[in-house]
Amino acid sequence: MQFNFSKWHGLGNDFVIVNGFTEKIEDYQSTAIKVCNRHFGIGADGLVLVLPSENADFRMRIFNSDGSEAEMCGNVTRCVARYVYESGLTEKTKMTIETQAGLIRPELIFNNGVLQTVRVDMGEPRLNPEDIPVTSNSNQPIINTPLVVGNQKFNITCVSMGNPHCIIFVDDINAVNLSETGPLIEKNPIFPRKTNVEFVQILNRETLMMRVWERGAGVTLACGTGACATLVAAALNNRTDKAATLKLDGGDLHIEWGSDNHIYMSGPATEVFQGCYLNE
Ligand code: ZDP
User: Labelling 230: which of 98, 182, 265, 277 has CA 20 to 30 A away?
Assistant: First the structure.
């Protein structure tokens, strides 16, 4: 099996994008594990397939570096929007993309012909525990609720952007041991489909810092859905307003919770190389 790919990142959260209209991949899950490996493969946080859709301009599927499939993704959406436009698959600058969790709407924003940013309507946040999913004995949203993990206690807020997120506010983000604590929360039995984990430090009502442990991928430099979920959690906890800049390890994302209850994410999308993957 061999296929052409291009390599993209959104703030250092990196992906191998494959044109599923022309390229054939037999087994997405095992291919994702091989391709994402940074020593034996191309190296990426995920493998992304751009596919035809019946009810949107495109459909995309994303596989984490451990082979698991994610329902939704933020950074990938910005990259895919730019990818389909620049590779001539569409002339639209505003398009619809079908995901496992519904439709999202990216828009390429130009200024004098130069791409300024990609703004994505990420749809509505979901707070109902069943929709996240997170096990709870009530159907009320989980906002600032204690969770004991080992000998540590965290106050968690749970938000789904189509994929699950568990947000924890801390005073000092640099004091968090992400790779130790992240997997304990990711795989905690209260999350039947596991969860992405965000640690967040509030700088002021419009600025926060976030670090992420991603389900199925580990520490990454940025997470778009995580940034959206974090803004929702911060606003629900009355720690920020409904629009903020999120400072991630790989750079900044701007997130707004609109009056239509949709979340709007703006940020960059960058192609770094193209190639042909060879598999023995
Ligand atoms: O939900 C998951 O399993 C995530 N690891 C998917 C990837 C999310 C992504 N980093 C984002 O920006 O939303 C692409």
Answer: 98
